[in-house]
Amino acid sequence: MIARDSGAVEEGACRLTQRRAGLYNPLPQKRPRAAALRSRNDSLAGRRTLKRYQRKFDTTLTACPRPRNGRFAISKPLRAGTGIRLATLLAAFLLFLGSSAGPGQSGPEPPPPKPPEPQAEAPSVPALPSETPASPSEQPAESPPLARPEDEQIPVLSLPDPPTADALGRLALPPRPYSIYVGSARELTDAEATLREFRARGLPAYLSPVNVRGPVAQSLYGVSQDGLWYRILVGSYTSPESARKILKFIMEKLSTYQPEILKFPYALECARALDPSRAEETASALAARGLFPYVQTWRVESGGTLHRVLVGCHFSRAAAATLQRELEAKGLSCRCAER
């Protein structure tokens, strides 16, 4: 008995020592049930939440709070009488909308239309003419060509006395080397068509053929390849400023062209005459030989006009001298002169 008591005392002392050292726990060991507790807590929280929704929406839900196919399963439909109340409220709302719209109206009154903005009065358009051709007596006469600006004020010449052919040939004339270059054409028919178009506008247009050889000559004459080119020129002026009026007129009325003012100091002079018929006769004879003459006119103090028949226009005296030799070979007497 004493030994048993002694063993109990020793066992108690040993357990006391282990307890103080933190090595002995007199409470029975329990297994952790965290998963089970979480499931139970979630179930309780879900029940409480569902009961609150049950009291609010007057529905009876199943005991399982977990969703089924993404939705909570409702075991019973809405309480009887709820549908009648909803239908009554909907009918009252529709009656309210009908009374606010008024008789003969199905919705709210639309806003009043905006007053039309004042528009400017369109100009009256004249009626189109009928397709029936008018009789010859009713047809209007052909309109004259458009008026062009007046030429520059050319100085009045003082003629020698008597005005013989030799004296007129020695008379010094103010230079008029500037002309308006319209373009060049390879075919004579194209150049003549352009010539007629410009002369119909009252412009003193004329042709000046040139034989181009080499890239330098192509760049100088503004053409794309070698060969014979027919240049279309307009007028002869003392300065670029005096030619700008005609240039502006061409750019406005004949906008398909790109004219420019160029200086051609030299040409071949074939005749000078106070009689216009003699100058015209000389020009016709030159044209019959395949040349393209043009005429410069000068006013004189006596009230007449001095006519000067020229052929060609060149940048250099050498080019004019070459043309002079070609005409002498054909039996034509023309001299190189300043324009």
Q: Give the uncertain stretches in residue-range form.
A: 58-78, 103-107, 120-147
Strand content: 15-25%
Q: Structural class given helices, strands, pairing?
A: alpha+beta
- By CATH, the topology of the domain at 159-173 and 264-339 is Alpha-Beta Plaits
What does the average pLDDT come to? 75
CATH class annotation of the domain at 159-173 and 264-339: Alpha Beta
**Alpha carbon gap, first and last residue:** 164 Å
The ordered string of helix (H) and strand (E) elements is HHHHEHEHEHEEHEEHE
At CATH level 2, the architecture of the domain at 159-173 and 264-339 is 2-Layer Sandwich
Q: Mind explaining what this structure looks like?
A:
With 339 residues, the protein is α+β, with helices and mostly antiparallel strands. Among the domains are: 159-173 and 264-339, Alpha-Beta Plaits, CATH 3.30.70; 178-262, Alpha-Beta Plaits (2-Layer Sandwich). Helix content is 38%, strand content 18%. The chain is built from nine helices and eight strands. It has helices spanning 2-20, 34-57, 82-101, 165-170, 188-200, 215-221, 240-253, 276-288, 317-329, and strands spanning 178-185, 205-212, 227-237, 260-263, 266-273, 293-299, 305-314, 335-338. The protein has a four-stranded antiparallel beta sheet. Strands 6-7-5-8 form a four-stranded antiparallel beta sheet. The protein is elongated, with a radius of gyration of 58 Å. The chain starts with a helix and ends with a strand. The model is unreliable at 58-78, 103-107 and 120-147 (pLDDT under 50).
